[in-house]
């Protein structure tokens, strides 16, 4: 949120009176169900693509390889572009939808954008559940992808703007927590529906996505829009009333005035996407884009998309592979809770650096085990002791990701962009994330076929690169009000401060106390209503 809540006790900066009110908690929980839907879609695809009736109906080539031994390579039996398109089409659609979502979050508000996402989700679920051919299946996934694009655009912004500063990190991570709960829920559902006789269990798996879809739709009808969004759209009195409601205090004037000033400055920016490329906004843009690319290059989505398929490849039987996927899903949820507790205490950088070490070691160990002990033939499987060790290492990797790159990849961009470029910045963030998610989803099974155990060395090398990036280039944003990021974060960083001193920076909010370039006369005689 923009400058709200309590600022960090140490470090100067504006402090606003605020309570942690029930309406904030409830609104954040309802909004974060967008993450529940996203997580369920991620988790369910890997499970249904390992179910034989699903493969037999939609992907008979893969079915013949897995059942009739139509392929002699352990790593290549699931290598099929159509099967990968089923998973990845969702993210390609989300990538396209996020451009429209940027407009709706700015013009219609965060709340209505979440409602649009819910409607897309519901229609997509209906088509997937009733699918009679591959075309219906893919169209349903595309509509789900549109929902993902709108939800991933609006929800992180909503959470950042409505939460008090001191718990902004924890509340924002509710989105990622719900993603992990959605993945776990999908894995549990897949484990149960795989046992259904008659070959229609996959329809139940895809149909139960309607539960989080309905939660998001109903939730978006019940929550209030953020004060930032209302003020941005000229609804000043309503914005002030909502601010009093969510803060639980009557004295919101200082925070309200800062939001009005930030919104006025944002209005001066006619082309937010073009403004993103200006020198003063490059650090935030570079960090946001890099975090999304690195988040996917950890290899997490490759593992979470295809966990049952991956464990099948390692020689686990169908039940065992789904059971192992449930274990990793549970670890994912628990570790995200750790992040909620610790992110506003130990900070963003510590979590990312610690996780880098943990992920690098676990992926290297997995690669060594598979390289030495798993032969490249469908008759080969790991000894039970080593198979358990692989599952433990996968869980070690997942836990590290879940308290670091998972939630912080969304949190840090949502809290670093200034208001005038926040919607555009979030749009670029979601766009880059979905683009690389699509690339990994579309390519992973083919990469697994060609790289074999080396796939884990590929991802671990990227973990090393991203850890160096964090060490030198990522500043700490813990407990810093959003509208004070420029002064207290970017201007203090050894590299990024060089981008903060250009002469044309008349649009920057300075701690809620005006902007550079008052010589242009915007400040004198300012009427918030006429300006907004």
Which key terms come to mind for this protein?
532 residues, mainly alpha, 25 helices, disordered N terminus
In short:
The protein is mainly α and 532 residues long.
Could you please describe the fold and organization of this structure?
The protein has 532 residues and is mainly α. It is 71% helix and 0% strand. It is built from 25 helices and no strands. The two termini are 19 Å apart.
Query: Which spans have pLDDT < 50 for at least 5 consecutive residues?
Result: 1-13, 503-532
Helix percentage range: over 70%
Quick one: biggest sheet? none
**What's the end-to-end separation, in Å?**
19 Å
How large, in whole angstroms, is the Cα Rg? 23 Å
Measured by DSSP, the beta-strand proportion falls in under 5%
Backbone shape: globular
**Count of alpha and pi helical runs:** 25
Q: Give helix and strand order, one letter per element, not per position.
A: HHHHHHHHHHHHHHHHHHHHHHHHH
SSE class: mainly alpha
Q: Average the pLDDT over all residues and give the rounded result.
A: 82
Total number of strands: 0
Task: Record the SSE blueprint.
Layout: H1 22-31, H2 33-48, H3 52-58, H4 60-67, H5 81-107, H6 110-129, H7 134-162, H8 168-193, H9 201-207, H10 210-222, H11 227-232, H12 236-247, H13 253-267, H14 272-276, H15 282-297, H16 300-305, H17 307-313, H18 318-346, H19 348-373, H20 384-402, H21 405-416, H22 419-451, H23 454-473, H24 485-488, H25 528-531
């Amino acid at each position: 949120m923009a400058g709200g809540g309590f600022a960090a006790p140490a470090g100067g900066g504006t402090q606003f009176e605020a309570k942690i009110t029930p309406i904030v908690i409830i609104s954040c929980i309802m909004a974060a169900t967008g993450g529940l839907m996203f997580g369920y879609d991620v988790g369910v695809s890997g499970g249904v693509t390992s179910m034989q009736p699903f493969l037999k109906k939609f992907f008979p080539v893969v079915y013949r390889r897995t059942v009739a031994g139509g392929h002699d390579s352990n790593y290549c039996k699931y290598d099929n572009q159509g099967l990968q398109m089923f998973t990845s089409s969702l993210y390609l659609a989300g990538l396209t939808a996020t451009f429209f979502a940027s407009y709706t979050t700015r013009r219609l508000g965060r709340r209505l954008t979440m409602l649009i996402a819910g409607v897309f989700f519901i229609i997509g679920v209906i088509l997937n559940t009733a699918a009679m051919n591959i075309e219906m299946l893919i169209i349903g996934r595309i509509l789900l992808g549109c929902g993902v694009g709108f939800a991933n655009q609006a929800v992180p912004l909503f959470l950042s703007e409505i939460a008090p500063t001191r718990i902004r990190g924890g509340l924002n991570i509710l989105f990622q927590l719900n993603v992990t709960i959605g993945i776990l829920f999908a894995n549990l559902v897949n484990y149960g529906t795989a046992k259904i006789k008659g070959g229609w269990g996959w329809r139940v798996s895809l149909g139960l996505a309607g539960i989080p879809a309905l939660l998001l739709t109903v939730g978006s009808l019940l929550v209030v829009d953020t004060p930032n969004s209302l003020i941005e759209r000229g609804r000043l009195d309503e914005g002030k009333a909502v601010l009093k409601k969510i803060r639980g205090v009557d004295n919101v004037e200082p925070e309200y005035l800062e939001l009005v000033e930030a919104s006025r400055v944002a209005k001066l920016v006619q082309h937010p996407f073009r403004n993103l490329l200006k020198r003063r906004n490059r650090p935030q843009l570079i960090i946001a884009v890099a975090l999304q690319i690195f988040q996917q290059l950890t290899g997490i989505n490759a593992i979470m998309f295809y966990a049952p398929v991956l464990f099948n490849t390692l020689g686990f039987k169908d039940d065992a592979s789904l059971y192992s996927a449930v274990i990793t899903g549970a670890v994912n949820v628990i570790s995200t809770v750790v992040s909620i507790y610790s992110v506003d205490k130990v900070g963003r950088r510590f979590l990312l650096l610690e996780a880098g070490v943990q992920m690098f070691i676990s992926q290297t160990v997995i690669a060594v085990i598979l390289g030495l002990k798993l032969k490249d033939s469908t008759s080969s499987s790991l000894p039970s002791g080593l198979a358990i060790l692989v599952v433990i290492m996968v869980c070690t990797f997942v836990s590290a990701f879940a308290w670091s790159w998972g939630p912080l990849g969304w949190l840090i961009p949502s809290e670093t962009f200034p208001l005038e470029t926040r919607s555009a910045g979030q749009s670029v963030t979601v766009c880059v994330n979905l683009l690389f998610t699509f690339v990994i989803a579309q390519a992973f099974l083919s990469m697994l076929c060609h790289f074999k155990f080396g796939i884990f060395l590929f991802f671990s090398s990227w973990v090393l690169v991203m850890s160096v990036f964090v060490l030198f280039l990522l500043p700490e944003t813990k407990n810093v009000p959003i509208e004070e990021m420029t002064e207290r974060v970017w201007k203090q960083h050894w590299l990024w401060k060089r981008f903060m001193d250009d002469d044309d920076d008349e649009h920057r909010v300075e701690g809620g106390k005006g902007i550079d370039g008052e010589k242009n006369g915007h400040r004198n005689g300012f009427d918030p209503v006429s300006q907004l």
